[in-house]
Amino acid sequence: MVGPGPGGGAPLENANPLIYRRSGERPVTAREEDDELPDIIDDREIFDLIRSINDPEHPLTLEELNVVEQVRVKVNDAESTVTVEFTPTIPHCSMATLIGLSIKVKLLRSLPERFKLDVHITPGTHVSEHAVNKQLADKERVAAALENSHLLEVVNQCLSARS
User: How far is CA 32 from CA 28, 42, 45, in A?
Assistant: First the structure.
């Protein structure tokens, strides 16, 4: 761990993360603007929802840190399923559960209730991926975490727009 954390707090685990270029904005198609056609949710729409989530440790988005990528988002609108794999910047990232929770909360708040969400760590990229994935998959643990006012405040900071 190197360097002071945000606000001079605990040291950063990854003081010098690689920063990636943001992908461009998705052009709106005529099909999407046609109110007569059903609005099908696709991989890019989900990626657009989560790409701007703030990293809890750095003043960067999850997209800029390559924690989320469009190729790791899978949507089956007909079966109402969304799967998101995310890749922590380092294998021992202590923020992995918080990042996964932030992704899950953003999707829970944004998508119709019919969708079943699976948010998990990209296989082989974190030393505690099984434990983190188990926590993220447990609806009761997620609900309990969101009842914790401090944790909810941190999640909301990750989801808020940077000024």
Answer: 6, 11, 11
DSSP code, position 121: E
Measured distance CA(122)–CA(111) in Å, rounded: 22
Q: How far is CA 45 from CA 82, 91, 145, in A?
A: 11, 28, 26
Q: What is the 3-state secondary structure (H, E, C) of 100-123?
A: HHHHHHHHHHHCCCCCEEEEEECC
Over residues 130-152, the pLDDT tens digits come to: 999 999 999 999 999 999 999 99
Packing angle between helix 149-159 and helix 139-147, nearest 10 degrees? 100
pTM higher than 0.90, yes or no? Answer: no
Backbone CA torsion sign across 15, 133, 117, 42: positive
pLDDT for 141 equals: 95
d(CA 9, CA 57): 10
Q: Supply 55's token pair.
A: 């990293």
Return mean pLDDT, the chain. Answer: 87
Q: Which distant-in-sequence residues (6+ apart) come within 8 Å of 151 by Cβ?
A: 98, 101, 145
d(CA 94, CA 135): 14
Interhelix angle 139-147/96-110, nearest 10 degrees? 90
The pLDDT value recorded for residue 2 is 37
